[in-house]
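Consider the following input, taken from an annotated entry for Phytase domain-containing protein (Pseudomonas amygdali pv. lachrymans).
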Amino acid sequence: MAEIYGVCLFKPASGELYAFANGKDGSFLQYRLSASDGKAKGELVRRFKVDTQPEGCVADDQRQRLFLGEEDVGVWEVDARADQPATLSSVIKVGEAVHADVEGLALYQSDNHDYLVISSQGNDSYVVVDAEPPYALRGAFRVGLNANAGIDGTSETDGIEVTSMNLGGPWSKGMLVVQDGRKRMPEQAQNFKFVPWAEVMKTLKLP
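Applying the prediction step yields:
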């Protein structure tokens, strides 16, 4: 692979660790990772491809599925196990709630509900769908300006991450972290914004 564009990890119940790497030509390479004699090693165990440029990916270790974004097409899911066929199934397509480019993907997993969060870069929003079939659309939201705190909203987001861990205070339901490609207050290089997941739940009326 000439240029790696995205990377994500997968750890099945067997305890092995895998890495998925994708390139601009649509290729995905799956490596089994190991460490012996103080050296990390990667063994190529599977490869598959999408038709156009991919973006972010995230693995659901519990369900052994891999979610992957294709910039101008949408989000797919595929069996993450190395010994299974890489048959792609559509989760959500561009033109529904998602506007190209599809960028970062993240999984919110809790005892009650699991959600897939998608960075919809084309309209500077974040789309939430159920993380299991039929992948029901829960809604979309934007991260806006907080004038009192002097914090601008977010736009041009690439990567995102989310946790359901209780981090205390307003973060008791977890935290969403989004990359902000245009920092306006003040004008500086890109940065990251932290969003209480409780606010996402309230906005989208999530159970």
